[in-house]
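NADH-quinone oxidoreductase subunit A (Microbulbifer celer), 133 aa
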Amino acid sequence: MPLLSTADFWPLLVYALAVIGLITLMLGLSHALGAKRNDHATHEPYESGIVPTGNAHIRISVGYYLVAILFIIFDLEAVYLFAWAISVREAGLPGLIEASIFIGVLLVGLVYVGRLGALDWGPRPQKNLRERQ
């Protein structure tokens, strides 16, 4: 393996200095040219020109977060399947079997989550008064 000399690192050093210089220039210009006025409206949230009303701290159902987490989990699994789809020819039959097992585990998980009621978005029906007692 050939030894690297310091002459090989000059392009990297020039690039790093250019990046740091550009960042410094952009931050300096935004600070120098930015608005200096500081009034009450500066710290108010801007919602498409609509004046905000009420408190921003509202209670959101736990079901919303559960659906969001499940979406992220199954969305990440789709990324793995896209990577497999790109290399399907190189993976051959063993890759197909592994991907089938992976999809099967995902389907079992989805059925399990569905039976738990985690994917029900609507309001839950209330039980009859006689059934509660």
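Residues 7-33 form one domain. The chain has a mean pLDDT of 82. ok done for today
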